[in-house]
Write a structure and sequence with these properties.
Alkaline Phosphatase, subunit A, globular, seven-stranded mixed β-sheet, about 325 residues, binds zinc ion
């Protein structure tokens, strides 16, 4: 038994003591992984061979199309990310499809990379899962922490607002910051917080094991009916932007995050994992793919997702799952 394991058990004890203290009984934790497709196990699919013990324990094998399944408490199915539009699916329109439940590439006329089309921003702000959940009376947490540097980059127009930030601002959500991260009330997009240290923004910020970040994510569900965390690691690694050898490490890091989340998750909570387009599942290309993406749902909310077959159908299913709570 590792020290980390006992540390996690201690934290979980603490969480259990806090239950019944006005907390939300059941929640949905949405882990959004950018650039992760669902494809057959093959020598060209890094997911087939990566160290993903937690995923394999749940699924009976790796996160590949051979392990699609639908049984009480566990659903894995491929869902379409191309949405009937030619070309490679991209994040700008894909994120709007996921967060607002609309066929964004069809509305825009094509798949748009990186940031949402300007014309779709009002729709995203007004119809996102964050806004609709909030209007239905559900507490929502956007788990990612944003540094001062992020807001400065927006102000200097070196960056544009991500779909998730537009959606969060449209819902009036509080965007978490580095103080939240230090207090373990937020997660870093890279899971371990190494990225903040690399940027020189890590003063007083301990690195965390991925499992512990997963525990922090599970903890947010105690006070929020919807918890959202987004992670761009698979897309960056799939594009080759993290250097040689990054792909297996990124997949293992995400698996360890999920391991911590699964250990600390309350039985009534539902975990939803999906993506906007394929990328990391095919190492023959450094670009996106037209592969389907995984819809992986763990917990009692699985029946609400049984008919979802496209990424623009995730949002309504998620809102229905919240309504059960
Ligand atoms: Zn990409």
């Amino acid at each position: 038994m590792s020290k980390l394991y006992f540390t996690m058990l201690g934290i979980i004890d603490e969480l259990v003591i806090n239950v019944n203290n006005g907390e939300i009984a059941m929640s949905v934790v949405f882990v959004f992984l950018d650039g992760l497709g669902l494809a057959p196990a093959a020598a060209t699919n890094p997911l087939a061979a990566a160290a993903t013990a937690h995923l394999q324990a749940i699924l009976g094998g790796p996160l590949t199309i051979e392990y699609i399944q639908d049984r009480p408490g566990l659903l894995l199915r491929p869902i379409d990310a191309a949405l009937g539009v030619d070309g490679l699916p991209q994040s700008g329109t894909g994120h709007v499809a996921l967060l607002a439940g609309v066929n964004a590439p069809a509305l825009h006329g094509r798949h748009q990379p990186n940031f949402p089309p300007v014309a779709l921003r009002p729709l995203l702000a007004e119809r996102s899962i964050f806004r609709l959940a909030d209007q239905a009376g559900h507490a929502v947490a956007f788990a990612n922490a944003f540094s001062a540097g992020y807001w400065q980059a927006l102000a200097a127009r070196r960056l544009r607002r991500s779909a998730s930030v537009i959606a969060a601002e449209g819902a009036g959500l509080r965007l978490r910051d580095m103080d939240d991260l230090r207090a373990d009330r937020a997660l870093s997009w890279d899971i371990t917080r190494q990225a903040a240290h690399d940027r020189g923004e890590g003063a007083g910020l301990p690195l965390v094991a991925p499992e512990l970040a997963g525990v922090h994510l599970a903890h947010l569900a105690h006070n929020h009916a919807l918890v959202f965390f987004e992670c761009f690691l698979p897309d960056l690694a799939g594009h080759g932007r993290m250097g040689a050898g990054a792909v297996p490490e990124v997949l293992a890091r995400i698996d360890r995050l999920l391991g911590g989340l699964l250990v600390a998750r309350r039985p009534a909570d539902t975990i939803l994992i999906t993506s906007d387009h394929g990328n990391i599942e095919d190492d023959t290309t450094r670009g996106h793919t037209r592969n389907p993406v995984p819809l992986l749902v763990i917990g009692p909310g699985t029946p609400r997702f049984a008919d979802v077959s496209r990424i623009d159908a995730v949002a309504p299913a998620l809102l229905a799952a919240l309504g059960d709570g």
